[in-house]
């Protein structure tokens, strides 16, 4: 199956028009589309007090509530895709500091105009001598105005599923990320494919539901485009109105914050090289543990045996190497991190046959 084609709604020439149609179909109340919740901890503690520095109009016209902002952004170059009125852009601008940079990219001119309106005021509010924010009208599927390997982090707040070409979107994200850079974003996913007739409806997509991917298709598309080990950091059920539930009968939705590392040191399976990591406990929001994904926490100052896809956080040019130390190397390969049960449970071969003295055939499921 061509997974990218299933979700594709437009080609390169029609991306801008497609996003405009979604904006026009959006509810009058921006928060009607919000799928992330502050109460779920999606705004990190270090960013919460910085909300007071962001103009009220920016916050009131922003289409989400939570913020996918990973730790250790100081001095980084961050790209905020489909930044809307710029709330997350201006939060990130405070987290990267005066020596960092944030590029906000927004397809819709009206929403971008709100962010632009307050640019000078926001920079003064942050007490910066010069602006560290660049605002551009454009689409995530064509970021040709951003140099390759120039971004440390790319963020997106419930807008990936608006994309008319998810494959092109991810290819551009990977292109602009530095080696060991991170795509950290929040979006809605499903437990099955949404019928194309429904996902073709701009109104359904504008609710942040119609364009949602079957979570396994997302994994496949991510891996096809070089993000070999997508991780889900936080997950929670997505609230639906009765009207929305009727439009998507039987489909379960979850809002997920995902972490995709742009590293050639990762692979599509967790393999064991005997590596250990130690998190030093220095992140203000994580004094007791580092949250790698929804299933893995590194207790502070404890050595943890990890797979090759996890150890990359402390290797190479990763900014996480400031707080995570890796011991061991990749000279010796120990196989599957969990043990390969297909191999280890295989019986001794002595001519395994069925009752008709024929080789055993295995059926599906």
Automatic annotation (TrEMBL):
Transmembrane segments: none
All copies of domain Methyltransferase, residue ranges: 74-226
GO terms for biological process, alphabetical: methylation
Reactions mediated catalytically: arsenic triglutathione + [thioredoxin]-dithiol + S-adenosyl-L-methionine + 2 H2O = methylarsonous acid + [thioredoxin]-disulfide + 3 glutathione + S-adenosyl-L-homocysteine + H(+); arsenic triglutathione + 2 [thioredoxin]-dithiol + 2 S-adenosyl-L-methionine + H2O = dimethylarsinous acid + 2 [thioredoxin]-disulfide + 3 glutathione + 2 S-adenosyl-L-homocysteine + 2 H(+); arsenic triglutathione + 3 [thioredoxin]-dithiol + 3 S-adenosyl-L-methionine = trimethylarsine + 3 [thioredoxin]-disulfide + 3 glutathione + 3 S-adenosyl-L-homocysteine + 3 H(+)
Keyword match Thylakoid: no
Molecular functions (GO terms): methyltransferase activity
EC number: 2.1.1.137
Keywords, alphabetical: Methyltransferase, S-adenosyl-L-methionine, Transferase
Keyword S-adenosyl-L-methionine among record annotations: yes
Gene3D superfamilies: 3.40.5.100, Vaccinia Virus protein VP39
Listed InterPro entries: Arsenite_MeTrfase-like, Methyltranfer_dom, SAM-dependent_MTases_sf
Family: Belongs to the methyltransferase superfamily. Arsenite methyltransferase family.
Name this protein carries in UniProt: Arsenite methyltransferase
């Amino acid at each position: 199956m061509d997974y990218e084609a299933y979700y594709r709604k437009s080609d390169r020439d029609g991306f801008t028009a497609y996003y405009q149609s979604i904006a026009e179909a959006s509810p009058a109340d921006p928060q009607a589309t919000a799928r992330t919740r502050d109460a779920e901890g999606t705004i990190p503690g270090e960013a919460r007090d910085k909300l007071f520095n962001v103009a009220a109009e920016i916050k009131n016209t922003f289409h989400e509530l939570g913020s996918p902002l990973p730790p250790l952004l100081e001095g980084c170059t961050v790209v905020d895709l489909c930044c809307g009125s710029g709330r997350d852009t201006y939060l990130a601008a405070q987290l990267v500091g005066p020596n960092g940079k944030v590029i906000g990219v927004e397809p819709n001119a009206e929403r971008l105009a709100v962010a632009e309106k307050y640019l000078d005021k926001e920079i003064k509010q942050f007490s910066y001598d010069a602006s560290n924010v660049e605002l551009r009208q454009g689409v995530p599927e064509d970021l040709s105005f951003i140099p390759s390997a120039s971004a440390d982090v790319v963020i997106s707040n419930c807008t990936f599923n608006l994309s008319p070409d998810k494959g092109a979107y991810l290819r551009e994200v990977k292109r602009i990320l530095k080696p060991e850079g991170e795509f950290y974003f929040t979006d809605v996913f499903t437990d099955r494919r949404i019928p194309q007739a429904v996902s073709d409806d701009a109104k359904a997509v504008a609710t942040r539901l119609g364009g949602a991917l079957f979570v396994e298709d997302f994994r496949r598309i991510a891996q096809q485009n070089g993000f070999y080990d997508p991780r889900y950091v936080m997950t929670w059920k997505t609230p639906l109105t009765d009207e929305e539930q009727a439009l998507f009968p039987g489909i379960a939705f979850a809002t997920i914050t995902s972490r995709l590392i742009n590293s050639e040191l990762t692979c599509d399976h967790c393999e064991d090289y005997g590596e250990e990591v130690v998190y030093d406990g220095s992140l203000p929001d994580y004094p007791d543990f580092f949250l790698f994904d929804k299933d893995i926490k590194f207790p502070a100052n404890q050595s943890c045996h990890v797979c090759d896809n996890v150890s990359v956080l402390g290797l190479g040019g990763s900014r996480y190497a400031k707080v995570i130390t890796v011991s061991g190397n990749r000279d010796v390969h120990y196989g599957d991190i969990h043990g390969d049960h297909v191999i280890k449970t295989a019986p001794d071969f002595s001519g395994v046959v069925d009752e008709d003295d024929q080789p055993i055939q295995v059926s599906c499921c």
